[in-house]
Amino acid sequence: GYAILKDHHGPAQYLLIPTARITGIESPLLLRAGAPNYFAAAWKARRFVGAALHHDLPRDAISLAINSMKGRSQEQLHIHIDCLREDVYTSIKNMLPGIDAHWGVLPATLAGHRYRAIYLPGQELTTNPFALVAATLTDPQAMGAQTLAVVGVDDARRGPGFVVLLDHSDLAHGDYGSAEELQDHSCRIAGQSQWPATASSSLSSTGTSR
Prior knowledge:
Shape: globular
Helix content: 10-25%
Order of helices and strands: EEHHEEHEEHEE
Distance between the termini: 21 Å
């Protein structure tokens, strides 16, 4: 029910795109009973990022992002799979002890915007982030303004898990609702010396999206 495509922008950016016609984050199809957990599938596809970079990146260096209706360029749902920005990586590590199982506003901005965050435990992403976000809204029509990112974490106390980051478009304050801003499509974080090298892989490419 989905395809994994190489984006032209960056050495290792991939996109998960449903094969069904789903416009974007606002689609009610994402919240139907039995709907695929596209974020879980995107997380499993992170191996393509490591293969393209010839580095087996740790879970906390990888991120998934989907933009709001105002922050995207296409009318077909796509989840960006790519490296996390180095500054965002450091900020999340520093704030992680204060992120728990309840939504809370982060004490510091990420990429200049104030995100809310929630912690999800587990090696794999069993919770559907779309449903998690929808549950916070009193107006279902507001779903299209939301943007979210999922970042893998490895907490010394809680073990492997995820941080889900949520923002919304606010054009009056210059925020288009683009969680893709938390990613680094040049993947500078892959150059850190502690990441182990892995075998190279030849992977095909396609167009650029946001």
